[in-house]
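Hi everyone,

Forwarding the result from last night's run.
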Amino acid sequence: MAIRLPGSTTDDLRSLQAWLAAEDELRGRVEPIEQTPAPGQLGSALDTLIVALGPGGAVSVLLAGLISWIRSRHSDVDITVERRDGHTTIRLSARRIRELNAASLRDEIDQLGQALSGPLPPAASADPSPPVPPRRGQPGANRAP
């Protein structure tokens, strides 16, 4: 997943990086991406966070962390989260999330999680080989195709 904070500062993105990295399931999976400095600019600026998500509930942990970080802030912020397939982009706004009660917040996290963890389109699959049927004795070997 790629996370951007349009219109925010590098400090905001570094704050989000630290917040997410504090989650056990995300520790070591949050990498900053810096853009090349423009002519006349000193140093590079943090542009994007890349979060490598494994199987399981990591998407929910990421979304809960994002929303928790947003709610801890005192200023408005917008976040763009893009799946690695490039086909799913979600935009979150602090102005909207701050107004949610606990039940609505849980529903929001569930909906976002479903959108971000759905199946990748076949063209975006990293392994183009066809699936291998299970061998005799393995789970699913006795099922009809």
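The first helix runs from residue 10 to 21.

Cheers,
N.
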